[in-house]
Amino acid sequence: MSKRVMLMVDSHLFGWERGFMKKKLVLILTVFLFSVFALSGVNNAQSTEASNEQVKMETKSIDDADYIISSIEDLISLVDHYKDTREIANEKVARILNVHLTSVNIYAENGETEKMAKHLASFQQLLDYYQQEELISENAFGVLKTGAKYLVEGKTVKGFTVAAQEATFTLNGTEREVWTYNGEIPGTEIRVTEDDIIRVHLVNELPAPVTIHWHGVPVPNQMDGVPGVTQNAVQPGETFTYEFIADTPGTYWYHSHQHSAFQVDKGLFGSIIVEEKDAEYDKDYTLIMDDWIGDKELYDKVLGGNYPTVETPVEAWDTFTINGETNDQIEPLDVQDGDLVKLRFINVGNYDYTLRFSGTEFKITHTDGQPINKPETFTNKSLLTSPGQRYDVEFIYDENQDIVIERMADMWLTDNTVIEFESVGSGDNRNQQEQTIKDDSVEPIDILDYGQYKKGKFTDIKQFDKEYRSDLGMKEDGSMTINGSVYPEEYEPIWVNEGDIVKLTLTNDTPLPHPMHLHGHFFEIISRNGEDLEGSPITRDTILVMPDTEYEIAFEADNPGNWMYHCHKLQHAMKGMSTMVRYEDYELPFTPDAGNIIE
Ligand SMILES: [Cu+2]
What we know:
Blueprint: H1 3-9, H2 15-30, H3 36-39, H4 44-61, E1 67-69, H5 72-84, H6 91-109, H7 113-132, H8 138-151, E2 157-171, E3 174-181, E4 187-193, E5 197-204, E6 213-215, E7 239-245, E8 250-255, H9 260-263, E9 269-275, E10 283-292, H10 296-303, E11 319-322, E12 333-335, E13 340-347, E14 353-358, E15 362-367, E16 370-371, E17 381-385, E18 390-396, E19 404-407, E20 417-419, E21 421-423, E22 443-444, E23 466-474, E24 480-482, E25 494-496, E26 501-508, E27 514-518, E28 523-528, E29 531-532, E30 538-540, E31 542-545, E32 551-556, E33 562-567, H11 570-574, E34 578-583
Parallel strand pairs: 2-5, 4-9, 10-13, 12-21, 17-22, 23-26, 25-34
Antiparallel strand pairs: 1-2, 2-3, 5-7, 6-8, 8-9, 10-11, 13-18, 14-17, 14-19, 15-16, 15-18, 19-20, 23-24, 26-32, 27-31, 27-33, 28-29, 28-30, 28-32, 33-34
Helix pairs in contact: 5-6, 5-8, 6-7, 7-8
This protein binds copper (II) ion.
The site of copper (II) ion has 5 residues, from loops.
Protein name: Multicopper oxidase domain-containing protein
GO molecular function, one term: oxidoreductase activity
Organism: Gracilibacillus thailandensis
């Protein structure tokens, strides 16, 4: 396994957590688990089978999370752990909690569901009491309470600690000060399985406030991580816990939404992957694409402090990276002949990147994590990706073919970047950059005419409940506008009610393409320049709006709250190209303070 692949799967864990995981791994492998299926009272033969399945599943992904709760045994070992770390005040409190959990286990085994439920309820009441008496830390309380709550429903809770930290990052041979999640660029990959409960404990060790926004994941509004809109920014030294159900599989990413044009550029991003339960890939790689200010002096001037202080010419971002590495530093991906390879491309940068695929047959299977209907194969074609967007691409690795995937050179990012493959055990057949076919006649893929036609969710809707326009523009002073308005001073929200089917018409009167991102909802693209889509329905959360082109998109207002809707070229959002979709009767569940900078 290459170094970079290790980096991608190796979560940052604090020392005590790593030790704890080892202990827990042994526990899970050796102790018979009364699975959550046993809790619902099915017969013994079935529950044994289910338990075995669960052991297999947990060992596969156990290194990814700080803790996993999928059984009463897991809760018991967590209580012991919090006793050791003194997050539970004393032996007695831990013992009483575990007496109840042990009883739950015994009653579950005997099929006495009523008594079992009673003891689990007592356990939760005890937690409330100990929290009031300050005999348990806030974090330990939250972890155990969540675990108990979801265990009854047969769900697995996966917990991650994400520390926003300063770090040093080497780029073009020089060291840069960066801000990171867990000390790495990109931040720790959060990888879970469909229907898992994700619980992320954010610890802010930076000298500036931060948040985590879960780009594309349809989370409840309070978990969306937008400072001043869904929560107050997490101040230095403070913590915040995000918790949501990962019920929509796909490729997503996370980033700070505080002062995001600055903080995302400085490194505060990572990927979040929700695997399908029946995923069938031999290899599955996440490729996070970004651009950096290559010149160290300029980098230090622009990004060295806690806030941006200088205007920067656009051509300064001239260094392209994949998973934080530049061209020749990028480790080849491990593959074997015949592997079905899935690549998850995520554009977290400032520019649109063009990818070229050649040498074998490829398929684009997902846009922004959402499936494309019966995608056709292609070769030697290019794909335009824009900030905030994701594309999943699939192919079968054939060591006899010269497979080339590259980011094509363009205006400021003048070098092309080649993704290499290394086939283990079959000699040196790693493809070389020199082999890149110099072919300028690469046909671009039109993602709005790709895959097989079928009716979309909104195809037959004749009358929309709400219709709004988003005319993207630019003022003479350089500010960027939606319907002539600069956010936040002049903006008009898009008002909706829960249950509305909403149509937005987007136009672009600027010379630049704008990737418009809607939080909390997926939308379907229903037409371009008045023409309905002829290929697969395209569902996404970020649409690239080309100059002089009109698009209609539609979404169902099914997630109450206040949701940002903005250009994901974050410099444009900062200059005003931003607005909000707001639900009429939504009451803000917090009081915004003065420390929030949304864009
Ligand atoms: Cu824009």
